[in-house]
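Continuing the series of single-chain predictions for the mutant panel. This is the parent chain; the variants come on the following pages.
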Amino acid sequence: MTPRKIAAFVACACLFLGACGSRVAPLPGTQLANGQLGTTGGGTGQVPGASGVPTPGATTGRGGIVEPPSSILKPGCKGGATDQGVTSSTLKLGLIASLTGPLPGQFDSEVEAVDSYFRAINDAGGICGRKIILEIRDDNGNGTTNLNLASKMATEDHIFAFVGSVSAPDDSGIATVAADVNHKYGGPYPDLGFPLTWKRTESPTNFSVPGAVQHDVTGEGASGTKWLNQQFGIKQVAIFWLRESEVSVLSAWGFEAADIKAKLSSDGKSSGVTICHEQPAGVLDSYYGNYVSSMLADCDPANGPIAIYTTMENNANIKLANALQQGSVTLCKKVGQKDCMVFAPTFSSYLPSFITGARAHATEGAFIAMPQIPFERLSQPQSSWTPGTYELQRYYSTLLRYYPRPHPPGSFGAPGWGSADLFAQAAAKCGAALTRSCVLNNLRTWPPYTDSGFLSPNKPGDHTIYHADLLVQVQNGQFTEVNPQLKSGPSGAPDFWDDSKLFDWGIFWWCHQDLFPQSANADKHKLVYAGRKYQVTAAQCAASNHQT
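Parent structure:
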């Protein structure tokens, strides 16, 4: 999309209402004025740190104006100072994100999604008349800073809850403060945001939408890998991950287990898939050419079709795509194509920069499995929209209302929007007697959450990763949905057709270590089972062989 088309896209409301017929793509954005971050507070309709930015109007959707539902606003409900961070007129929340540092640009969309959601709530009157004050802080991707900010928010700013926080070092800071097992910080605090460490994932006060990685639970489809392996007849798999991120490492090992399990023979001793290459990479590594050379040395095309799966963040995925192109690797663009490799990063690369920030055509053909409905849905005729599409439209039009020049709203933007919505619903259910205890109890018993079908369903209190997704592929320089008319997914979210039953990959690995690359098995023992007396029985091993 050219700059001229992008400008027209922002200006023309009919485009984000899906009536113009042209393809909708996530928008390139600009940095906030002077790099400043603000607070939601009064719902001014301005970009934080900027001045005089006009509001493009109310959010719209099916039937006209879409405001937050009355079940959240609770008209006529009035409460007092019922807990820390709560007064009769305000509700104070905190958000910590890595906006600068080693992962620049990865989480901007989540911050803007959360902020936009709460601004819309405030403009409609607040929850029980309480306007939300959202304190936004940047930890620069530093664990010590994350801890200091989380501590200050709890003990000095006196927030009620954390909503929308997303940061690589969240185990050292927000996970500790939110759970507050020693009551050092005046907690515990509800924490709704996408965790990037297992400590925060498994925290009893964290509730992530659409789910989060656990130590040893993953999906048999592992973010589209099972479907891709079947479609392309994959026999060899190369896995790339970031050594600095436990979630990235654990996800990669889960991918390995899923690939091997899907092709496990009935005797439980052999597999049709070989993990031909494992590659930990560093966030600050600038050259991936040597990684690709090592992969090509380990993965011989004569041994069968090859898939490259990564659990890295977007900038690292771009570096890998560039190196693959420079290494003369051709990416598969369609089923049946010969002499090519499947390339599939996780949804962290559902951003325009994955295409525009790479070398020309370097990401062409790449697949991305996603736990959210893609923005491309908005270009379809409204007659084909599902309930989730209308929620996507509400998110996008609300974003443009408060951020007329947003950062690209892909990647973590949808989980951010869902986190804000889930918190608002849980808080509204408490009504006038709003307390942290009430919100936590609501979240622990919440049924499977989809945000009206916009997100893959997941029960927040289960603390597990999502079990269904859909796929997009880069075609002709833009994201194109794979099987957009296939609506065979789970109840309440039929768009997410790529089902991925959860299984304990730790048990499976324990029982089949001979099928895994030996290079990382010592690390798997150390990380997955550290501090545990994990004994696996023969019956558990037999059960782990079962294929769905």
